[in-house]
Amino acid sequence: MARLGKLREIVLGKPRDPLSADTRHNIALIAFFAWVGLGADGLSSSCYGPEEAYLALGPHTHLGLYLAAATVVTVFIISLAYNQVVELFPTGGGGYRVASQLVGPKAGLVSGAALIVDYVLTIAISIASGADAVFSLLPTGWHDWKVSTGVIAIALLIVLNLRGMKEAIKVLLPIFIGFVVVHTVLIFYGVYAHAGSLPVLIPATIAETKSLAQQMGWMSVAAMLLFAYSHGGGTYTGLEAVSNNVHTLAEPRVQTGKWTMFYMAVSLAFTAGGILLLYLLWDAAPAPGQTLNAVVFDSIINHFNFGSPMANHVALVVVLALEAGLLFVAANTGFLGGPAVLANMAADSWVPRQFRQLSSRLVTQNGVLLMGLAALGVLIWSRGNVALLVVLYSINVFLTFSIALWGLCIYWWGNRRGAAPWRRRLLLSALGVLVTTSILTVLIIGKFNEGGWVTLIITGAVIALCLTIRWHYDETREELRKIDALFSTRGGIEDVPSPPPLDPQKPTAVFFVGKNRGVSMHALLWVRRLFGEHFKNYIFLSAGEVDAQSYNGPGALRTLQYEIENSLRYYVNFCHAHGLAAKSECAFGTDPVAELTRLAEKTLKEFPNGVCFASKLIFARDNFFSRWLHNQTALALQQRLHLQGIQVVILPMKVG
To answer: Whose CA is closest to 128, among 148, 150, 102, 143?
Structure first.
């Protein structure tokens, strides 16, 4: 076990103290790091989004100029609208929190389910597209290894993210910076080299558009543009990630979030719009086994000419390697955003509460593992087909956008009398809804038979599972509420002036208690009934679990400490009021079982004649599902303490 713990520490790093004043500072992201970690998803979409939109135009590539302009405008519309989300929800939650609080819980569930699927697809599509970029440089006979390469990349990202969010970003930072610098140079040079074509590009595009409209009709031209525009929907992904992860940003959070969104919007608009312009200026055409970016960048590099064909090829290799690298960095956004959504949904009981738990590195490791394993399954199932994954991906992206922006419209209309700039913000939100719902409608209708139905089925299945989980938790919560009501003494039990003294040499009952007063009192009363006056001391131990919600605000940890201490005071005062000697101990950490084990060891050294008691809920309809939804702390404690020779008696409590 010691060797295993040492190996874990080497791979994942040393544990962090969740209550340390420096911990929050060390794990919080400044705007630049947030841009790298959260903005890579949006920026990397320029590797496949513009290409999908451009190819959807077919032979009418001159319409690409409109796509370039529309892409830039859309990026800024969505990013400015999501700045409002950052302002209104500084504790994070993004589209899920907006939908839940501004539209309704069911809308929040739909948005959350869409985001979960979306972040899984973020990982899968980024890895698949990155593999495409790498293998564009290799013989076609090697392409059978693309999926295997993607599997290895996902496994490495899982390990990196289990070490910590900031650590993963620092490792991937050089790739991100290299991509930004190289692509900025390529876009500027590519436009400069064909600057002579720019004065005639707009008039020529307008003339060709009029000619096409005479042949097909204006409605057909508009439909073609909207169809291609919607195919490039993957370009706008990642803009949601900042609002979803505001709680991970450095203070002041709102200001940091806005700067991060600004960096993302400028870099994405410049890169995606610039690449579409390059396609037009350099007459890019598809080539077997190569991405359109590889084709156009090859032309630009050969035009610049590094001195020899070999040098030009090496330069292209560097460019495509950075594209592939950034796509792998972008996959990391799924590991940041997905677990954050799961943690927020777990707080609302839509998914198992285990997704709120933090590891010793203060990482929501259950969410990281779920995102990684699900992405592996999608990558293998799709065989890394980027065209299919883009369709699956884009539908849920715009479903979430549409619900969130509609929630903002509801908010600003409802607060029109109290908020001075409400008209401008309502107009921006409404414009965003119009854009995103239009793209969503075209994607669902146009791509339903090409894989869109798969997204709808998967998202529907996630929603159905979440509804079942919520029903179970609501039913259990109602049962426990009835039990808690039996002990809801108004104001609690007052302190006893002269409580009975403790005697460490006498028999002692040690109780592991949680936040449900009724469950803990049930255990205490059963021990009194079973053992009568045998025990002379009553010790209450509790562990406050520091989870993902504990860092939502500056007072969250203090609130947790107050709740635990207040709960323990009730049990001690209850015993004192009945003439029983009692005291309590508490600890705080990410692993309640480990904290309770340490408290038990310490207590039993002081009270050697002690016996530990823990409560466990027993459901009338007990099955794998009900056991999966509860953390089984009592059983884990019993097993761990039994191995150390400490007796633990589990007292069952029937529910339902």
So the answer is: 150
